[in-house]
Amino acid sequence: MSDALTTGANREKDDPVLEVEGLRKRFGGLVATDDASFAVERGEITALIGPNGAGKSTIFNLVSGFYEPDAGTVRVDGTDVTGKQPHEIADEGLVRTFQTPRKLEGMTVREAMLVGAGDQPGESFLKLFTDAAGVAAAERANVEAAHEMLERFEIGHLATQPATDLSGGQMKLVELARAMLAEPELLLLDEPVAGVNPTLANTLSDHIARLNDDGVTVCLIEHDMEFVMNLADPVIVLDRGSVLVEGSPDAVRADDRVIDAYLGGESA
Ligand SMILES: Nc1ncnc2c1ncn2[C@@H]1O[C@H](COP(=O)(O)OP(=O)(O)O)[C@@H](O)[C@H]1O
Ligand SMILES: [Mg+2]
Predict the structure, then answer these.
(1) Which domain does 134 fall in, by range?
(2) Are both 203 and 131 inside the same structural domain?
(3) What is the CA radius of gyration of the chain?
(4) Cα angle vertex 18, ends 262, 215, to 5°?
(5) For ligand 1, mutation pick of 58, 62, 67 (most atoms within 8 Å of CB)
(6) How many separate domains does the chain show?
(7) Structure pTM?
(8) pLDDT 10s per residue in the chain (268 long)?
(9) 55 Cβ inside 6 Å of ligand 1
(10) Whose CA is closest to 178, among 90, 85, 110, 91?
(11) Of all protein residues, whose CA lies closest to atom 4 belonging to ligand 1?
């Protein structure tokens, strides 16, 4: 952690948090990501939009280490993280949520929050043997941090509920709160309001804006255009695995190439 802080302090303020260059990923005969290059600037909320199958989620999987690229580089805060494991990339400050939340059967919301929590010394048998008190204290601290985070998202009352009892929208809130436990510098959100009712979508939008005000850089994928246009600037449009257009919400909305891409995507 202190390493990351030192690196951050030495870094130019206007260096991008995320730089993607010439990224490529093929699945059999299908090129899902085709020479994609873009940057996410510090402090901004950048949206990644594009027709279904354009390769948006694949890019998130590539930059967060869940897929290995066939070519290209990913840099987080200037550090080359290409081919690294998700937890190593999370240590660099990049944390993501999933388009489809993971299965959480048999878990309470609080337990779901702690899956993948950074500091889990209980996993080291030797440490458990030699420092049981330290392990218990760390676990208590994790539970407390999870509670505080749920409170920050105004869902503290859900902590002891079975995770499977939540609505889709509440689940999205929990995912967001869970991601924030890792104290990310850059938060990647894959369709944070998909299938969420309009009221809860507004709540999520407010939370994301607040996190951004607090200094978290955000990159999000979303189909809900009103949500994107209200929250994000700039907007990057992906089509067939490559960046088609990048610009302000208004510029992107008025761009014929973008309209064509969406129409083409629908008939494909
Ligand atoms: N793990 C995978 N195996 C095979 N094909 C995949 C895999 N992940 C994505 N694809 C394919 O890559 C293309 C882009 O998918 P995706 O990145 O999920 O698009 P988007 O998120 O923009 O809708 C699609 O044709 C999809 O079927
Ligand atoms: Mg997707």
Answers:
(1) 107-161
(2) no
(3) 19
(4) 100
(5) 58
(6) 2
(7) 0.88
(8) 444 444 444 555 678 999 999 999 999 999 999 999 999 999 999 999 999 999 999 999 999 999 999 999 999 999 999 999 999 999 999 999 988 767 778 899 998 888 765 444 455 666 666 777 887 888 888 889 999 999 999 999 999 999 989 988 999 999 999 999 999 999 999 999 998 999 999 999 999 999 999 999 999 999 998 999 999 999 999 999 999 999 999 999 999 999 999 887 554 4
(9) yes
(10) 110
(11) 27
